[in-house]
Amino acid sequence: xxxxxxxxxxxxxxxxxxxxxxxxxxxxxxxxxxxxxxxxxxxxxxxxxxxxxxxxxxxxxxxxxxxxxxxxxxxxxxxxxxxxxxxxxxxxxxxxxxxxxxxxxxxxxxxxxxxxxxxxxxxxxxxxxxxxxxxxxxxxxx
Length: 142
Prior knowledge:
By secondary structure, the protein is of the alpha+beta class. The chain is 37% helix and 19% strand. It has a 4-stranded antiparallel β-sheet. β1 (35-40) and β2 (45-50) form a beta hairpin. α1 (13-29) crosses α4. The longest helix is centred in the N-terminal third of the chain and has 17 residues, at 13-29. The model has no long low-confidence stretch (mean pLDDT 93).
């Protein structure tokens, strides 16, 4: 008998749009203009939106936060201390071709225990971005 790995439904565009809308609602309620990026399990951009008033760099930071959360399968908020000079991942941000960003605001997305993508939020404080991303993930799980 073979023990085949069960297939998990990939993150859909509809789900990515739900994440984007929920994160933007949470940010708007707090009066914070943000950018939100959603990546699929392969690290490809599935959905993106930047508020008109969000700082331009927030588009890049939201995508890098999502990419970092995806690659390390961990919230970026949990990784910040690991890249400090005394941390075990100190050289990781410069070791790879694709830049990682160790600032809170990126969360991996799971379905049935499997990694299916990630969300990243940029534009607010790291704590705000983390909260907006968390709100979006909670909305998706409803």
